[in-house]
Model the fold of this input.
Amino acid sequence: MNSPLVEVDAQALQVEIDLIYAGVDNLAGKQIYQDPRCLLHRDAEACLRKASRLARQAGLTLRIFDAYRPPYAQYLLWEALPNPEYVRDPSLGSHHSRGVAVDLTLIDAQGQALDMGTGFDDMREHSHQFFADLPADVQRNRLLLLGIMLAAGFTYIDSEWWHYELPGADDYPLIDDGSIRPAH
Done:
């Protein structure tokens, strides 16, 4: 099979990769990815390249928390948090499992994450993209990330400030990359 997935080359794109589900400190409380490669659909990777350039123009770097997510991983996350506001029902197919969604934040020149008001996978209303009851600097940081990602060709979802995906994500087929297996 000729996979549409490509590996995100952190050095070439000048991004930082910190795949949260490759470790145990995540909402499922266990290692989900045995294979720590950061993969995206080639269309999404092209937009990520543009986003990285835009972030660097502002003196910032993208830190990627998640990208392509094999279907088995979506089931594990749904098992941990069966709430469709935050985790897409695996029977519908996650946009991550289509390779067209990426979870990320911005870091400064010292490698410190900008304050986005909550951490990654903080599944509360405070994580919603336009939650109003946050300090102005947090709002600015979220809007900066939003502007970068929209300008690069992504769109956003309302419930997670870190999640961006290609427009028309449902039009992309689900990808079950056989080379990526569950952690044991």
In short: The radius of gyration is 15 Å. The helical segments are 10-13, 42-57, 71-80, 136-151.
